[in-house]
Amino acid sequence: MSWWGKLIGGAVGFSIGGPLGLLIGGILGHKYVDKPNNETFGQNNELTQAAFFSATFSIMGRITKADGRVSEDEIAMARQIMEHMHLDAAQKKAAIHLFNEGKKADFDLDGVLLQFKQAAHRRTTLLQMFLEIQLHAAYADGKMDSAEQAIINHIAGQLGFSLRHVEQLSALVRFNLGLDAQGYYHGGAASGKSSGDLLKEAYELLGIPESADDAEVKKAYRRMMNQHHPDKLVSKGLPEEMIELATEKTQQIKAAYELIKKSRK
């Protein structure tokens, strides 16, 4: 049975308490009040998946509200992620509920982040995938304003990522969305970007300078592919529904690597 089936079935182990417990309890129509069970956190992969799902959509709602209003593009982006995950009707309803909870003024952002980091066992690759999804939310309307950048930097810091790491992940998201380095939309690879701009973004995506030698390029590529390997991410707690998102990331990394290789021939 999947994490979702166990959650709906009321399996023991989901009464985790704290802000995540309240979010998960809200999905089911009641509130969990039990204290967090650290032993359960260490043994229950389904719990990690439930925590990832709940933190993803609630914090996404918080980010879209950062600039004072939630735009139609941001709502469309959230729904697009739900479609990518092939959520059923009940799961979509839960995701929307979580998204709306995140928009509330009293949403406990730091509490959710702290508890999610614990549930994810501080696994860097899993936390990184979470941050990338939140970057998609921040760039949903074609740009990242100062309020959104501030909350992204705060989230990254709480999860243990440096600002340099945020910049690299931002490059990956921009490469996918067709944005320039300032986060403004220019239509993507198929609609007018110069080969020089695309090549520059490919290097930014891999986190290496254009002066890197071939061995450094290959090493960076393999590192990025390893960090985004769908099967590894799922084994560490990524919900199965998000495999397609992880697969798309590997395709983007491969495209950047191939572009760099082609330019060097």
Summarize the structure.
The chain has 265 residues and is mainly α.
Major pleated sheet: none
Span between termini = 50 Å
Rg is 19 Å
Order of helices and strands: HHHHHHHHHHHHHH
Tell how many strands the DSSP assignment holds: 0
Helix content, binned percent: 55-70%
Number of domains: 1
Count of alpha and pi helical runs: 14
Question: Average pLDDT across residues?
Answer: 80
Low-confidence stretches: 32-43, 181-192
* Structure class: mainly alpha
> What percentage of the residues does DSSP assign to strands (E)?
under 5%
From the spread of the alpha carbons, the general shape counts as: globular
Properties at a glance:
mainly alpha; 265 residues; globular
Write the layout of secondary structure elements.
Elements: H1 3-8, H2 18-28, H3 38-43, H4 45-64, H5 72-84, H6 89-103, H7 109-119, H8 124-138, H9 146-159, H10 163-177, H11 195-206, H12 214-227, H13 230-235, H14 243-264
Structural account:
With 265 residues, this protein is an all-alpha fold. It has one domain (3-264). The chain contains 14 helices and no strands. Helix 4 runs parallel beside helix 8 (124-138) and helix 8 (124-138) crosses helix 10. It is globular.
